[in-house]
Specification:
Elements lengths: L10 E4 L1 E2 L1 H17 L14 E7 L5 E10 L3 E8 L20 E5 L10 E2 L1 H15 L4 E9 L7 E9 L2
Antiparallel strand pairs: 1-9, 2-3, 3-8, 4-9, 5-6, 5-8, 6-7
C-alpha cells in the first residue's frame, strides 16, 4: 500500500469511476423519492456520498500483490465489492450482493498532512485476494466507494497490483 515500484511482470489496475452507472443509480433514488415509493426489500440504494467504480481485467488469472493509495488531505474512504454482473437497467443492487470484507483507508483531520494513510491491513489483504479470485470469472468488477469525513473523489488515487498466475 505504498508507492514502491511494481515488479516488471506486475499488472496495476486503477479503479475508475463509472459515471454512467453512478448516475443511473442516483436516478433510481430520485425516481423513488419523486413517486413516493419505497425501495424493494433488500435493495441497496446509492447514498449521496457514494459512487460506483470499476476494475477492468485484461488478464483473469491473477494473484493479489498490493494496494496503492493516495489521499490528499484527510477523510475516510470505504470500498465495497459488488458480486453481481451489472445490468442496472434490469436489476437493482441488492444488499446480499455486497462483499465482505470492505476496504477502508483514512487519515484523521488532526494527523499531519504528510502522515501515512491508515488502513486495516488484514482486511485489505483479504479484500485484494477476493478481487483476484473473482477476476478468474469476470472481465469487469464493480465497487461502491463511500467518501466520508471530508474525503472527496477528486483527492483519491486508488489502484491494485496483481501478478500473473503462471
Amino acid at each position: 500500500m505504498d508507492n514502491a515500484k511494481a515488479p516488471s511482470n506486475a499488472i496495476v489496475l486503477e479503479f475508475k469511476e463509472d459515471t454512467a452507472l453512478t448516475e443511473m443509480m442516483r436516478l433510481r433514488v430520485s425516481s423513488l423519492q419523486r413517486s413516493g415509493q419505497k425501495r424493494q426489500d433488500g435493495e441497496r440504494l446509492l447514498l449521496p456520498h457514494e459512487a460506483v467504480y470499476r476494475l477492468d481485467f485484461s488478464t483473469q488469472e491473477l494473484n493479489f500483490s498490493r494496494w496503492y493509495f493516495s489521499l490528499i488531505a484527510y477523510g475516510r474512504v470505504t470500498i465495497t465489492g459488488i458480486s453481481q454482473h451489472w445490468t442496472p437497467d434490469l436489476t437493482n443492487l441488492m444488499t446480499r450482493q455486497l462483499l465482505e470484507p470492505i476496504g477502508t483507508i483514512w487519515r484523521n483531520a488532526d494527523d499531519p498532512e504528510d502522515s501515512p494513510l491508515k488502513w486495516l491491513e488484514a482486511d485489505m489483504q483479504e479484500f485484494g485476494e477476493r478481487i483476484a479470485e473473482l477476476a478468474k470469472v469476470r472481465k469487469v468488477m464493480y465497487f461502491l466507494f463511500a467518501f466520508k469525513d471530508g474525503a472527496e473523489a477528486a483527492n483519491l488515487s486508488c489502484s491494485v497490483e496483481f501478478t500473473p498466475d503462471n
